[in-house]
User: What shape does this take?
Amino acid sequence: MSWSKQQLVEEAFNELALRGFEITLDADILQLGLRRLDAMMAMWDGKGIRLGYPLPSSPDSSSLDDDSNLPDYASEPVFMNLAVRIAAGYGKQIAPTTAATAKEGYDMLMARSAMPPEVRYPCTMPSGAGNKSWALGRNPFLPQPPEPIDAGPDGELEFN
Assistant: This one.
């Protein structure tokens, strides 16, 4: 199970050292953080960084209790970049380590989304002139690609 949206927002405030020090995280502040999180994820989705985050249809239709559906590798880049986005609204200066970690995480997510998917050729395509396996009674076409392994809803591996 991935992080909830509330956990991501609270962790962003923790990164800015705002939780419990200068402000108390009441429902209004958490909702503001959630709107910023939703806006950031919508912008990233538009840039091609699709992480499975459920984008709301309107600003008020998102809930803090919803699961973020983010993969584990994306949690830290998301809350670090959220911390960078909300810092100015509270008059906080961002620590250099926070800014560096946020940029590094964003760059990693961009690099992962920039990788084109692997091309899978159909089993109806001839295997080519250099492949003479058909002479031995084998199929002259490319072999059927193996079925991908998917993770099931409980995290266990399933074979399709």
